[in-house]
Amino acid sequence: MAQAFDATAQEKELAARAQEALALARKLGASEAEVGASVDQGLGVSVRLGEVETVELSRDQGIAVTLYVGKRKGSASSSDASSASIKAVVEKALAIARYTGEDPAAGLAEASKMATDLPDLKVHHPWALDTERAIELALACEQAGREVTGIHQSEGASLSSGEGVRVYANSHGFLGTQKGSSHSLSCMLIAQDEGGMQRDYDYTSARNPHALRDPASVGREAARRTLRRLGAKRPPTGTFPVLFDPSLASGLVGHLMGALAGGALYREASFLCDSLGQPLFPEWFSLGERPMEVGAQASSPFDGEGVQTRDNRFIEDGRIASYMLSSYSARRLGMSTTGNAGGARNIRLEAPLETLEALLKRMGRGVLVTELMGQGVNGVTGDYSRGAAGFWVENGEIQYPVEEFTIAGNLKTMFAGLQGLGGDIDTRGSIHTGSWLIDAMTVAGSRV
């Protein structure tokens, strides 16, 4: 990197700036105030066909201030954390607050809910990586993939490594800081036969660089995934079971959490409004979050409002057990915050797990989906329609790759029709899940 990143020094500096902003806000007449500040530094390189394409050294920082004058709210931000900039930001936020309408739900989260348990969750693992070594690793990743017989071309390999610090403070006296890191390596390759070109990719991602997979294994897996798509054709049209690859099943979880989010609920923009306690999944399925999990991708002892995070159960024995609420959305709904300002953290599923082979056998005849395209998901109605690619399955076995088709259904029906969960858990993101087998969806493929 261009310069050393002293996370501890940055943490102290940001905390001082946040306290400075709060003191000024009180002095100028704000009844309540909160400040978020962050600084991040990273290195990114990309290579293609054995040559370096880009090298990027980045450093970003920012400070955001939200002030309340009674029930009037104003917010302003800046990428400059100097004293002069802080003064300008606070003054601007205060001016906005004095001219906005009153909102009965506005204000900080309750002081009694501020986090007091602030352990080190081991999410900061800096990587002493210079540009030359980063390029070397990316080149090794791409080269391993290109050496696989049948690979025709490359879209390249990319490596990124970064670390940062965030601080949140408010006029309740709460001050929370957290250092974090993120590292990843990816590769995308192209193969070609008489039927045309196909591309696919693989990646590895982790907080700790020592947890990244070997570059060569990423390149070879990208090659394997690419080659298996050759000879793709369109599947038949009809109603069939659909098996979602783990990387795509996490998207289904994302749609669920979006529908359980307080912001969508109080706006009546969710297909799960007024659904607490109602069945949504089979009884053998539960889902929750573990924000205090040591070393995980989204771990944090406090949420975006300083509220203590906790394990939450959103789905319990198939039923909706909790919404995902910030203090504001909770007030709008007449409820209490669940410590989810900023979203859910480290989603984990509880269900009997089966092998991929067992799920394919249970499916019998249908589609294994490994890629989705488009944004055809309606959060208000739950209607779901996406372009897809993957593999056709007959008699419980993969037969051939398929592409240029759509799958459609409704998320409520899909969740209720969940038949099985795979043990092929993808742990690269904050949502850990295996494959999902849905009993029936509309597949629009070849013309009939």
UniProtKB/TrEMBL annotation:
Keywords: Hydrolase, Metalloprotease, Protease. Residues 125-230 form the Metalloprotease TldD/E central domain. The keyword Transferase does not apply. Residues 33-97 form the Metalloprotease TldD/E N-terminal domain. Residues 237-445 form the Metalloprotease TldD/E C-terminal domain. GO terms for molecular function: metallopeptidase activity. InterPro entries: Metalloprtase-TldD/E_C, Metalloprtase-TldD/E_cen_dom, Metalloprtase-TldD/E_N, PmbA, TldD/PmbA_N, TldD/PmbA_sf. SUPFAM superfamilies: Putative modulator of DNA gyrase, PmbA/TldD (SSF111283). Belongs to the peptidase U62 family. NCBIfam families: PRK11040.1. This is Metalloprotease PmbA. The lineage of its organism: Bacteria, Pseudomonadati, Pseudomonadota, Gammaproteobacteria, Oceanospirillales.
